[in-house]
Structures are given as C-alpha cells and as structure tokens.
Amino acid sequence: MAKQRSIEVLVGAFMAAALVALFFLAMKVSNLGTSPAADGYRVTARFANAGSLKVRAPVSMAGVRVGRVEAIRFDKKTYEAVVTMRIENGVDTIPEDTFANIFTAGLLGEQYVGLEPGGSEDFVRDGDELTQTQSALILEQMIGQFLFSKAEEGGK
Amino acid sequence: MAFKALRRGARAVANAVLDPVAELGRSGLKALAGLGRAHLLLLHILAGSAEVLWRPRLLLAQVFNVGVLSVLIVAVSGLFVGMVLALQGFYVLSQFGAEESLGVMVAASLVRELGPVVTALLVAGRAGSALTAEIGLMKATEQLAGLEMMAVDPVRRILTPRFYGGLIAMPLLVALFSAVGVLGGYFVGVGLLGVDDGAFWSQMQSKVDFREDVVNGVIKGLVFGVVVTWIALFQGHDSTPTSAGVSRATTRAVVHAALAVLALDFVLTALMFGN
Fold it and tell me: Above 70 in pLDDT, residue A82?
C-alpha cells in the first residue's frame, strides 16, 4: 500500500513538473505571455511594394509595438499589396490621416510597419483603411539610384 | 532425348532467375504480415481502452514506469543539448553580429525539433526496450498464456495500460525536455557568453509562437509516444519466446522505433511547418 502511495505521489509530481514546463514554454519562451492573441481591431493599408514584410511582423508607433501584421495579400485589380494590421484595443487614438511606412530594423533586420500619426481629429476604427502609405525601401533600388545620380554628376 | 535435356536446362535457368525473385517476394510478404499483425494488435489494445478507466492504478503504474523513471535522463539530456546549442549557436551568430538572436535559435530548435525527437529516442532506449523485454519475457515464461487460462485477456490487461502510459508520458516529457533545454541555453548564453539577458528572452518571445511552435512540438511528442510504445509492445508480443528471441526483439524495438521517429519527424515537420 505504501508503494502504491509513493507511485501516486511521484506520478503526480511528474505531471505537475511537466505542466510547469509547459507553462514556462507558453509564458516565457513563446509569445503567449506578451500578446493577447486575436485581440484588437483591424486596420488595412495599401502599399505599392510590401518588400519582405512578413505576417506577424510588429506594427509600431514611436518605436513602441502597438500591434501586428495579420495578413498580406495581393490586390489583382490595383496591383498593390494589401496589409491587414491588428492594433491593440488600448491604442484607439490613431488619427485617420496616419502615415504608414514599411521600415527595416537595422541594415539586415526584418521589416515592420511604422505608423506616424497625422493631425486629424477623427480616429480610425475597425475595418478602416490608412490611405497615406510609403512602400518598403528596396536596398538594390536605392543603390541603383545612388549610382545613377553619381554617374549624372560625373557627366556634367 | 535431346528435347528432354533442353527442357531440364531451361527449367534450371528459369529457377535460377526466379529463386531470388521468390525470396524477395517471401520477405516482402513476411514484412507485410508483420505490419498486419502490428495493426491488429493496435486495434486489440485500443479495444481495451474502456477498461483502463476502470483500473486507473494499472495506468498509473505505467505512467510511473515510462514517465517518472525517464525524467532524470530526459532532464539531464535536455540541459546538455540546450547548453551545446547555445555554444554552437553563439559561434555562428557572433560572426553576423546577431548574438541577441541566440534565444530564438535555442528555443525554436528545441521546441520544434530537438525536444520531441531526442525525447522520443531517449524514451525508446530507456522505456521502450524495457517494455519489449518485459512483454517478451512474460510470453517466454508463459505468463500471458496463464492469464488467458484464467479468462483474462492479456492484451487488454497487460498491453493497453502500458500503451496509454507511454501516450500520456511522452508529451509531458517533451515539454520538460524543451523547458530544461531553454534554461540550459540561458545559463550558457547569458551566464557564460555574456548575451544580454533582456534581449535573450524578448527576441525569443517575439519569434516563438505558442500555437505554431510549442503546441506543434507537443503534438509531435504525442505522435512519437504512440509510435514508440506501439512498436515496443508489438515487438515484445510478437517475439519468439526464447531468450535469444527476446533479446532480438528488444534490439528490433529500439532500432525500429528510432527509424520510425526520425522518418515520421520529417513528415510531421513538412506538414506543420512546410508552408
């Protein structure tokens, strides 16, 4: 009987330890602790070029993350990239004329959406679209433009 | 006369060609029959599922055998795997000036791949071989036949609790392995190599997704648990009831389980992270 009891206790301890490990993985290792999943409102923006923006990339304002990119799809009529962002519910004072940029974190870092607030008194709501956007900077294009302008200067 | 000799010669030539083909066919049929017996045994094991609920103590003892007794080897292995990952990852990442991503690298590779796979291999060696030897020896000493004499179904009474024990223990061991591994990576990365503490965790949290990475890893563990215990039980139940037979079955159980886990891991990874 004592043996049975000790087996029960050890199995219980084992299961508790494993659940603690799972909790640790959920809260400390993965993003479950940081972002309440599927919470917030949706805002879309159209970009001429989404660069290498990925789903789940951060959406930040003044360098603080206020949401995540939820979906990126191609609009076959206008040939634009439609980026759907999910903004946290607490951030409900984004002006309608907010400027959406695709920035790169560092030279080789991943791309994210940066929002620069406009001056409008009206705030965006669920399902609204940000009309003022700037596409991702493509490094190759910039280098090409730089070389081109340098060549022009040299020609004069 | 000449005609008869010719016919005999033709038959000899045909046999020489057909014998290897027949040998191949025989071994193929044998493998197929084994696969069929394994599936019938699985059905038989699953048929006893309800009885496990009636006798939770049998199940508890098997969770103890597979799970609790494997905790030490799984935790120690996880710690060292995490520490080695941090050392190696740091070496590569520092060449790109991306040491801060060490946490992501350690956590993602542990949670997605190494956790489930290494745990399954360890359990196959630690608990699977014990299961096979136990069942094989029970068969060799006619204990299974004895149970049958008492009108107790040995598969339902002996094999089913062991199957569910492995099924329950494996995902829990996987979670334990991954968590301990991340801690090991943390000790080496932050403590020894001087990666920034905050960046280690925050980069990890921003890149590792709970549903995509952690849950998929645990699901892998569940699948591997089914496969490892199933193979171990089948090899034990199907073994030749002699000491040599049990020893062969034990070897086969570990080898087959390891191969099945590695091959299945490829399929699962392609399904889960393929797109």
Answer: yes
**With 90 as the cut, is the pLDDT of residue B118 above it?**
yes
B60, B178, B208 member nearest A11 (Cβ): B60
pLDDT confidence band for A107 (50 / 70 / 90): low
Question: Do residues B121 and B231 touch, judged by C-beta distance below 8 A?
Answer: no
Distance between CA atoms of residues A121 and A94, nearest Å? 9
Strand partners, A100: A115, A133
Output the DSSP codes for chain A. -HHHHHHHHHHHHHHHHHHHHHHHIIIIISTTTTS-TT-SEEEEEEES--TT--TT-EEEETTEEEEEEEEEEEETTTTEEEEEEEE-TT----BTT-EEEEEESTTTS-EEEEEE--S-SSB--TTEEE-EEEPPPPHHHHHHHHHHHHHHHHH-
* Residue B83 CA, distance from chain mean position: 24
**pLDDT given for residue B109 in this prediction:** 92
**pLDDT digits over B92-111, tens only?**
988 887 878 888 899 999 99
Note the pLDDT tens digit of each residue in B33-62: 999 999 999 999 998 888 888 888 888 889
Question: Which chain A residue shows the shortest CA-CA distance from B173?
Answer: A18
Q: How many CA atoms lie within 13 A of A99 on its CB side?
A: 9
Give the mutation candidate from A29, A54, A64, A72 for the B interface (greatest B CB count, under 10 A).
A29
Quickly count helices (H) and strands (E) in chain B: 13, 0
Residues of chain A with C-beta less than 8 angstroms from the C-beta of B78: none
Is ipTM beyond 0.90?
no
Between chains, do B111 and A30 touch, taking CB under 8 Å as contact? Answer: yes
Determine contact, residues B210/A31, Cβ cutoff 8 Å. Answer: yes
* Burial classification of residue A59, based on how many CB atoms lie within 10 Å of its CB (0-12 exposed, 13-18 middle, 19 or more buried): buried
Q: Name the residue among B174, B17, B34, B187 with its Cα closest to residue B111.
A: B174
Residue B127 contacts A, CB cutoff 8 Å = no
